[in-house]
Amino acid sequence: MAKARSQYRCSECRHVTAKWVGRCLECGTWGSVDEVAVLSAVRGSTRAVVSPSSAAVPITSIEADGTRHCPTGIDELDRVLGGGVVPGSVTLLAGDPGVGKSTLLLKVAHQWAASGRRALYVSGEESRGQIRMRADRTGCSDDELYLAAESDLHAVLGHIEAVQPTLVVVDSVQTMCSTDTDGVTGGVTQVRAVTAALTAAAKTTGVPLILVGHVTKDGAIAGPRSLEHLVDVVLHFEGDRNSLLRMVRGVKNRFGAADEVGCFLLQDSGIEGVADASGLFLDQRPQPVSGTAITVTLDGKRPLVGEIQALLAEPSGSSPRRAVSGIDHARAAMIAAVLEKHARLKIAVNDVYLSTVGGMRLTDPSSDLAVAAALASAYVDLPMPATAVMIGEVGLAGDLRRVGGMERRLAEAARQGFTTALVPSGTDAVPPGLRVLQAPTIVAALEHMLNLGEHRSKAPTRPHRLDAPPTEHNDW
Question: Where do Basic and acidic residues bias regions lie (predicted)?
Fold first, then answer.
């Protein structure tokens, strides 16, 4: 025999308490504590063995044909999904308001319908007329694309049964409600119940389901933490409002790699995938200028070529200014300190401005060497060749460290037409047609950089300090 007793569990951090509280004592989340029933066995009791509903079989005897990826028709999204959506899978796409989630998924449904497969787009936020206006503006109209404006869960399930689609898009899960469950629309209880019901319907019918999710002020997916555990794939759709570039980043994927990135351009006429996004992060100029350096970063598994710009100016006040955009401020300060200590570049007395081109965000330590090269180029006023890339992590001791994925980075640099790469010592797997200069320390790397700049310049100039006469040579 077993008797039931009550516990209260937080849906965010799974913390268990003996009584109900409005705010979780562990993670501090409001309204996330729910009552759960726990069966406790009575001492000395025995339980009957329950026969399984189906026998266990060898894994090799199971056919995998029903779990193949079905392409959506959008290459960049298929890249992140691992080849497309899987029948019966549930995908959650989350992002900030106005980033383009509805536009992207409307195009996914259109591409799906244009290939002869029926798609159902359910919106709880917009009317059918509003969706039709967006479809006319972006050219996403097809007879096999069905629209429904519903916020009731049972009505949505009824539409799925009546239309018999092969792809369902629900925009969004926070606007759906179930009359069988208590709580307000968008609350923890409602979101969990709606997602569980839609997931069960997708698994039963074998129809792939794509859910749109909202995010909080911190950028996390709104709703209970268990929402991410219920679905098969979690994608983040991100981008700057001041830029046309949008990125779909994989966070969880049960059917493929979870570190892929897809690039898109959001325009007035719709959204388009960008197969080669490296050109978006490079500044187009006729001649190289001082204070610029090019690097190759890895965003997930995708190599991207980016440009870093640096500017040193005389301070206007007693305290020099530091302005950084697209680069981690702490790493930029660390690299400036390393140049000051080991390369003896008097950078601390000047205003330092660092920025990336095209709104690119560099969080990979492999961009340290490019940041140092840009600062040194601005310091000595010597342009670097436009055909050279700098890849490497800078240590506090002035040493250069190798980074992961160097083979992919160098291959991308060679594909983009770069001829020279400045990298840490010990780098192997150099692609043909690319000249690799290896340096063990930051000082050796700056010497290579100085030689590259002087060989390119028609009138070589000796480096000098900004706070000293031009005739005084730098130590490196």
Answer: 464-476
| Residue among 255, 294, 260, 256 nearest 278 (CA) | 294
Is residue 389 marked as binding? no
102 annotated to bind ligand: yes
Give φ, ψ of 227 to 5 degrees.
Answer: -60, -40
Cα separation, 87 vs 67, whole angstroms: 6
The Cα–Cα gap between 426 and 432 comes to: 17
Confidence check: pLDDT of 3 > 60:
no
Residue 100 in marked binding region: yes
Q: Is the peptide bond before 172 cis (omega within 30 degrees of 0)?
A: yes
Q: Is 98 annotated as belonging to a binding site?
A: yes
Report whether 3 belongs to an annotated binding site.
no
User: What is the predicted pLDDT for the residue at 470?
Assistant: 37
**256 annotated as a binding-site residue:** no
Mean pLDDT taken over the chain:
85
Query: Average pLDDT for residues 114-134, to the nearest whole number?
Result: 93
Q: How far apart are the first and last CA of the chain?
A: 81
Percent over 70 (pLDDT), the chain: 89
Q: For residue 368, what are its two tokens?
A: 């340290």
Q: Give ∠ CA 211-212-218 in degrees, rounded to 5.
A: 130
pLDDT computed for residue 98 by the predictor: 86
What pLDDT is stored for residue 459 in this prediction?
A: 39
Q: What is the pLDDT of residue 473?
A: 38
Mean pLDDT within 389-411: 93
pLDDT value at residue 47: 58
Residue 95 labelled as part of a binding site: yes
Selected residue with higher pLDDT from 3 and 368: 368
Closest-CA residue to 324 (of 354, 301, 294): 354
252 is in an annotated binding site: no
